[in-house]
Specification:
24 strands; alpha+beta; 514 residues; 3 domains; Chondroitinase Ac, Chain A, domain 3
Length: 514
Amino acid sequence: MSFTIDKTPPRVTGVTSGAPVYTTPVTISFNKGTATLNGVPFASGTTVSASGTYSLVVTDAAGNSTSISFTLRSASSGDGGGNSAGGSGGESSGSGEGNKMAINMIDIQINNVVYKNFAIVSVKTVNGKKVTTVQLDETKIIKELSSLHDSPIIVIPVQNGSDRVVVLLNSQLAKALDDKNMTVEVQTDNASYTLTANQFDMDAIAKSLGSNTPLKFNIEIANVPDHKVDSIRNKLGKISLVSPAIEFKITASSGGKTIEINKFLHFVQRRIAIPDGFDPIKITTGVVVTEDGNIVPVPTRLVQENGKYYAVMYSLTNSVYTVIGNEKTFSDIQKHWAKTHIEKLASKLIVQGISETSFKPDNQITRAEFTAILVRSLGLHAVGSSADYADVQKSNWFYKAVTIAANNGLTAEGNSNRFNPNEQMSRQEAMVMIAKAMHLAGMDVAISDKEVTELLGAFKDLERLDFSAKPAAALNVKYGVIVGYNGLISPGNVITRAETSIIIQRFLEAAKLN
């Protein structure tokens, strides 16, 4: 039996190497194999209409390849710039069901300076949904970055009505992300996603992939399908859904292996646009939909830019995010001095009542209750490994909250294997936990002995503070979380549910998470 090895390279029509500059859109086809155009997957029969210089590589199953470089200066596409992907020439050829693609160029911004045609976009329709893929021009960007100081900010606007936007960061840019502490912001019509190198554990990612080849990242923003949005509405009950539901996703790949990145070292910022005409007063908070379908609040600020409102959310994980409107009060707080604070945090799903109508604001709070409130205020929901406490069991209602707090460095360090969840929470213990939360939130927690002495010197009961707790107490005073009363900081006093609401609210404001 004899075998014939195919040594015939793929045949390409529509463009040829060494041809003069094309001045009209070109439709490129090939007879076999798969192709990339400037590194982006490319389908046979696609029309390229944007001016630019292109490199086409077609490879068949036997490894034979055909490479063609060509230049297009199309009068119909103008300069190919602007802040929208998939412009006039390419939209018509992107209407097929996954087998046709529109190619265009877009501008990006580096440190607020616009750079023309620094990215190529492909637009296609998959299962009735518009999908845009962005391939950044590594050569051009790396050249510009070489002349800039560290921490450059790259903004990639893709505002063309896509249901899904994917930005590819190939090896050189992924390395620059780490080496120059680069920030990348992807903007779509309804959302934006801001990522910085220090939010990733690059070593852990590389170890998970088990490869020494350079890392590549895909950053994705996608509209959530209607049937999944209906499921979210069912979970919310009486709470209203204010904005579109958006999925944020990042994958890393190396050596043919790909993993999804769902955990970050520091808070990642996301923005979701609020639909026009919606009363901003009714906007309460952003929420994340967890893997098990639960709704968890995340730290959220409302900002207005150019007359449009955005919910700015901060989280340590990827998933589906949306914005809710909710009003909550309790019958027993109507004349209470902390009414406004309690209602605000209850509407944000951070504090909960003893019942649907009762909050019991003056009840003393337990360590488990305080921990659960702090965890919810930070939008933490990934449980991770079990907490090593003998008195915290999986059957306890507080198991998840205490475990999450421990895994995020919010609980006390020491040799004790007991958490004492049902003991009352002292002001000193609360200050220590809040200081740990400040660190997690990225606040400046460096404090000198001199500053500690100055900040705590005004309190007459300073000596009642444990020595090890003084830096934490000073940080709480510095940021206005704890203000004291009648010259006393009262570290041994047990805090109430109302006081907890105010402390958490002040912390979120100081951390700019509210």
